Amino acid sequence: KRRIAVMTSGGDSPGMNGAIRAVIRMAIEVGCESYAVLEGYEGLVQGGDLIKRMDWEDVRGWQSEGGTLIGTARCLAFYERAGRLKGAKNMILNGIDALIICGGDGSLTGADKFRTEWPSLIGELVKTGELTQEQIDPFKQLNIVGLVGSIDNDMSGTDATIGCFSALANICEMIDKVEATAASHSRAFVVEVMGRHCGWLALMAGVATGADFVFIPEKPRSENWRDEMCKVIARHREIGKRKTIVIVAEGAHDMQGNKISSEMLRELLADKKGLALDTRITVLGHVQRGGTACAYDRYLATLQGVEAVRAVLDATPDTPTPFIAINENKITRKPLVQAVLDTQAVAKAIENQDFERAMSLRDTEFSD
Ligand code: ATP
Question: Which residues form the Phosphofructokinase domain (predicted)?
């Protein structure tokens, strides 16, 4: 029987458990054996108890559990060839030749590197006497399929990542809560949300909550963003709005690349010579990731998990490593390397203050 393993890596996101459940059950359904690699790449490098056989009932009820129940980690050893060599050995010792990884662009980059290096890794294991030729013969090819688990929705080539809609729902719920107190006291709140290179959460939360102003990394405000923001908020106050909500992504900055921090915004809103608003900062932090997945993420994780197993079964040595995407409501397979390169190109463009390029590389249309 063919053995397929599933792993979660990088930051956790709601819906990862739904993806694991779908992979494990689909693999069993099509006559394969299912395995879980615990603690991300650490489990692959260390092997032993961290590579675990999974049965149908082992994942019962996992749809409604937050985070990832098989653990995740950042693993320094896997950046090095020596770590990947250990990983290859542990895969072969467990008879596994297919790995489905749910993680962000970093995890998926590592996965593709592992697959590309696989022939030379197993060759070296034979040369150094760690494995015999007979042991590696059935494992000439490594199959890798990516699932994107990320709350940021920062992966190019897919409309949504597993977890992003749950995080968005969490943010909206928190903003609704601060709005109640904002309106009661006629206060302003600066709400800081996650997103170092991707403003999807901030922007969507802005639309969903009717925020007064939003700052995202891809589209810095004009030179005089201070006046612009104050004017908009003053107008909203004039027409009777008692609450002010400004959403700032953690990676927001101005045209010169200077960070626009929550504290900077608070000072501006509270400035006695200006709006003079009683202003508080709420940094949402890890509550954004927290809790169980929303219905959409459970559905996405399940459909994509099933598709990932199908992609493993369809793979040929010449198929480029795929990841499972969703485009215009259809589950699709896309080349992983291109999507990772595009994702990293956005981050690079933002770092280089080439915002036009960053915007053109994003799938979402942004406009004022
Ligand atoms: P998040 O979006 O939450 O940051 P991520 O998957 O991008 O998730 P990373 O910390 O970049 O998170 O990567 C997770 C792990 O994947 C790393 O700790 C490392 O073990 C492995 N990894 C990442 N990049 C590479 C790489 N270039 N080569 C080998 N392994 C890598």
Answer: 3-311
